[in-house]
Design brief:
alpha/beta, 6-stranded mixed sheet
């Protein structure tokens, strides 16, 4: 098995929304906001070579939205989804599987693209099976008012229409070396891949723990539909990470790809954080 970090650029979100009830005097020390109270966040995906499968976890924001949409999020940085996959030595046609942790636009946007004349929306990865689960798919395709702006039909429906969509049910993984943790605090049935790499476990934390700054239990995003449940789920995952010496891989941390943690009298704390390659 080989692992490749796939950088897809950065975007900006309101600092208050990203840190919820935590006062700005605290969170601004970790990720300082600009004059509009916006902080930069990564959109970090993972490419997994495992036998004859090439598995992509999440797809970033994509590039098919209009300038007005991107203006809200100040997309910046030189990296792109396809460019980073090519940098790793592969093409879109090589990808056999796409795991979508959930269907918010900054995680699924790159899964679908326009054809050459922008008349038809098509899966970006023509030979891949796209993996979600039926509960989350139903939630996303019949969105509640709180999340409606995050579930964009152009990012989602073409995947099903292509016939490339399959569901992971009852935590039964279709992958030999990847298990899943299902959580409901951020959104209904978000899936966290747990990658068994050599003698280690890597938890792709998605939006349960979007950055290394979000380890304290009360540091929960305002985007979460069930914040109290997020706190409990985060506590469980952090306990597992400390006990089993798992590596946490952060999707949105602007500076640190990964971290290892330990249990202390004051809760789970970071032992070390840095690039994924430092830990594997």
């Amino acid at each position: 098995m080989n692992l490749h970090i796939i950088d897809t650029g950065y975007f900006k979100l309101d600092g208050g929304a990203m840190f919820g009830v935590v006062p700005k005097t605290l969170w601004n020390k970790h990720n300082p906001a600009d004059e509009k109270n916006l902080c930069s966040w990564a959109m970090r995906c993972l490419l997994i070579e495992d036998g004859d499968r090439l598995i992509l976890v999440d797809t970033g924001l994509g590039d098919k939205q209009d300038d007005k949409f991107f203006g809200f999020y100040d997309l910046h940085g030189d990296a792109t989804l396809i460019g980073s996959i090519k940098k790793a030595g592969f093409s879109a046609e090589d990808v056999t599987d796409v795991i979508l942790t959930h269907l918010h636009f900054d995680h699924v946007g790159g899964a679908v693209k326009y054809n050459t004349d922008k008349s038809v929306l098509l899966p970006t990865f023509p030979n891949a099976t796209y993996w979600s689960n039926s509960s989350h798919w139903a939630w996303a395709t019949n969105p509640n008012p709180r999340e409606r702006a995050s579930f964009l039909k152009e990012n989602i429906l073409p995947i099903k229409e292509s016939g490339q969509l399959k569901f992971i049910e009852n935590e039964k993984s279709p992958f030999a070396n990847i298990d899943f943790i299902h959580v409901d605090g951020h959104t209904e049935q978000m899936m966290l891949p747990v990658i068994h790499y050599k003698n280690q476990k890597i938890i792709y934390a998605a939006d349960l723990i979007p950055s290394s700054f979000h380890l304290p239990l009360p540091w929960v995003m305002s985007y979460d539909v069930r914040p109290l449940l997020t706190m409990q789920e985060k506590e469980n995952v952090l306990k597992q990470a400390a006990e089993e010496k798992c590596i946490l891989l952060f999707e949105h941390d602007p500076a640190y790809e990964a971290a290892v943690v330990e249990q202390t009298e004051k809760g789970v704390k970071i032992m070390e954080r840095g690039d994924l390659r430092n830990f594997i």
